[in-house]
Amino acid sequence: MISMKQEAASFVTELLGELGAIGAETGGGVTRLLYSPEWLEAQKFLARRMKGLGFEVRYDRVGNLYGRLPGTMKNGPVILTGSHIDTVRCGGRYDGAYGIAAAIAALSYLNETYGQPTYSLEVVSFCEEEGSRFPLTYWGSGNAVGLYDWDGAAEVRDAEKTSLKEAMEAAGFGKPEQPEALRSDLAAYIELHIEQGPILERMHKRIGIVEAIVGQRRYGITVRGEANHAGTTPMPMRKDALAGASEMIIQLEAEAIQWGEPLVATVGRIEAAPNTPNVVPETVQFTVDIRHHDERVLDSFSGHIINKFKEIARWRGLELSTVCWLEAKPAPMHKDLSDRLEKISGDLSLPYRRMVSGAGHDAQLFPGVCPTAMLFVPSKGGISHSPDEYTAPDELADGVSVLAALLYELAYEEKLP
Amino acid sequence: MISMKQEAASFVTELLGELGAIGAETGGGVTRLLYSPEWLEAQKFLARRMKGLGFEVRYDRVGNLYGRLPGTMKNGPVILTGSHIDTVRCGGRYDGAYGIAAAIAALSYLNETYGQPTYSLEVVSFCEEEGSRFPLTYWGSGNAVGLYDWDGAAEVRDAEKTSLKEAMEAAGFGKPEQPEALRSDLAAYIELHIEQGPILERMHKRIGIVEAIVGQRRYGITVRGEANHAGTTPMPMRKDALAGASEMIIQLEAEAIQWGEPLVATVGRIEAAPNTPNVVPETVQFTVDIRHHDERVLDSFSGHIINKFKEIARWRGLELSTVCWLEAKPAPMHKDLSDRLEKISGDLSLPYRRMVSGAGHDAQLFPGVCPTAMLFVPSKGGISHSPDEYTAPDELADGVSVLAALLYELAYEEKLP
Where is the Peptidase M20 dimerisation domain (chains A, B) (predicted)? Predict the structure, then answer.
C-alpha cells in the first residue's frame, strides 16, 4: 500500500490544483456556490476525469455526481466515499474537494491494482454542504439520505431572490426523468476531509479518526439594561447591558474550560445599542455556540450556562432573553469502522489520534442510513475557509492510503461492518 | 425672594414652551443645530423677548446673543449668566434653554424689583455647545473665552460638507464689522442647568451646587487575537479577542466601583470582527470613557486600568493597542461662589447637594477667565438628550430663585468674589 504514496500525492495535488482553478478569485481563494457556472464546471470536470479512469458516471436529480466502479456482485451493496464540491466564498482548495480527489485516487488505485471489486465502490461529489448560497446546508447529502423533500426548493431563496428550484433547473437539474437522489443501497459511507482545526498538527499526528461529529446548540442572547449618560450616572446606579454581557461571556469561557475538552463554547457575534462612547449601553445581543459529541453533556452544559446567565442578569437588574435557534444532534461514527481505521493507521506506521469533529460534515447525515466513518488529515495552522488552507502533498497521500486500505477490506475482502 | 417663585415658574415654563416649539420634531423632541433656520429663529425670538423686557440686545460675530441690564457703573465689570441655545438631534426642551430662560427671568425680576444694578448684568444665549452639527463643541463659549480662532472655521465641515464659515455667513454672522466674540470684561460667569443625571432626584435634593466639572479621558482600545473555527479549536488553543475584551470591561467596572464615587468609567461602544456566530473573534475594538474632577485621579486611574488591560492581554496572548483620543481637564468652580450658593440655598430652605458635574458645560471654559459657578436643578429620571427630558415648574423656579439671589449679591450689593 505504501508504494502508492508518491503517485497518490501527485495525483491528488494535481487534481486539487485543477479543481482549485475553477472558481478561483483574482484576490485568492475559490468560490463555487451551488448551481453557479463555476460549480457546474467543477462537476463536469470531475465527471470527465472519472469517465477517463473508467468509472461509470451519473448525476442524480439534485446534481450530486457519482463515479462508480461496479462490483462483481450485481445489485449488491455499495460502498460510498467522497465529500462536497461547493465552497464558501473565497474558501480554500481542500475543504470538500480533497475528500473527492482522494476518493477518486483510491478507487483508481484499487481498480488498477486489484481489478474489479466484489461490492460496488462509488465516489460522490455532493452538490452542496456549506450553506453559502442558500440558507440551508447539506443539500447534497441531505437529499441522498432523505432529509430533504426537494419540492420545498421553490421557497428557499438566495441573496438575489433566486429560488433553489430555479437555480437547480438553470443548472440542468430538478427534472423528473433524472434519477432520484435518495440512496437505499449503501453498506457504508466513508468521508476523508481536512481537519479544519489545529489538533493533528500540534500533536504531530498524521491521521485523525473521527469517533463522533459534535452536536451543536446555538443561542441568541439579549441583555437589556438602561441607556444612561456616561458622565452623570454614578456606577452603582447603572444597569449596564455590556458589563452584564461581558460577565456572561467570561463565565461561559471559564465554565467551558472547566467542563473540559472536547466541549467548546464560543461567543462569535456581539452588537451593543446605542453603541455610543458616552452612553451606558442599553441592549447587548450576542450569540452562543456550544458543541459536544454527547447530547447529555450538550443538554446539561447549555442548561447550566443559561442558569448562570440568569443569575448574572438578576444580580445586575438586567432583563435577559434567550432563544435557541439551532439544535443539531451529535453523530457518532461506526465503532467497528473506526477501529479498523485505527488498525490500518498503525499498520501503515501513521501516528493517529481518535478525535471528535467540532465542525459539521456530510458524514453526520449517514449514521442512520449505513455504517459511517470519517478520517482527517492535518490542516496547516488549523486554518480553513480561507485561501490559506493548506495540507502538504505527503499528508494528502496519507489519507488516500488509509482510505484505500479500508475500501479494500470492505469492497474486495467483503468485510462489511 | 420666595414671593417671586410662582411668577418665575410660569415665566420660565412659558418661555421654554415657546422655545421648544422652535425646531420641534413631528415625532417629539427638539432639533436646533448651529446656524440652522430653527437656530436662527430661536435666537431672534430670544432677542425680541429680551428687548421687550428692556434689555440691551446684541449679537457677537459668531452669533452668541447677549441681553444686557446696564449697571450704573459705566465700563464696570460684567456679571454674565446663561447657557446654550443649540440642541442635540431630537433633544429635550430644557438642556441649555433652561439656563437662558432662567437667566432672563432672574434679570427681569431683579430689574423690576430693585431697578438698575451697580455692575452690568448680562444674559447670554451661546450659539453652540453640543457638537451636534459640526465636529466641535463649545463653539459659542469657546469664542467668548478665546479658545477658538474662528479663522479656522473654513476647515470644519458638517455631514453635508458645508463649512462652519459658510454656515455662519449664511446665518448672517462672521462679518468683520460685527463685535468680536472675545470677552475681557467679565467679573463672574454663573450657569444654571438641568442635572442630566439621577442624583438630585434620588436624594430628594432641589439644588445641586457644582464644585467641579469633571475632566475626561477617552480611549480607543483594540484587542487582537486569532480568528478560529468555533467547532474545531479547543478552548486552550484559542486567542479569543472578545473573551479578552470582556475580561477588560469587567475589570474596568470593578476598579471604577472600587475607586469609588464620583469616578465613572464606561465602555459605550464595542465592535467585534469577523462578528460571525461560528468564528472565534479575531479583533475587538471598544471605547473607554473615564471621568473625574481631580486630574491626578484621572491620571492614576487611567494608567492603572491600561496596565490591567496589558496584563490581561499578555496573559491571554492577545495584542493590545490603546489610543487616547480625548483628554479634557477638570474645571473646578469658584469656591467662594459655591459657598454663597450653599448659603443662599439654605436661606431659601432648599435641600441642596454639593456635587460634581459628570457632563460637560459651557461653564468649564470660564475658570481661567473669571470666577465661575454652576448650579443644577433635578432631571426627572436623570433623563436628558431625549424628548423625555423634564423638570417640574416649581423646580425650575427654585433655580431662578437661587440664581437671582446670587446675581443680586454680585451686581447690586457689589460683593464680587
Answer: 217-313
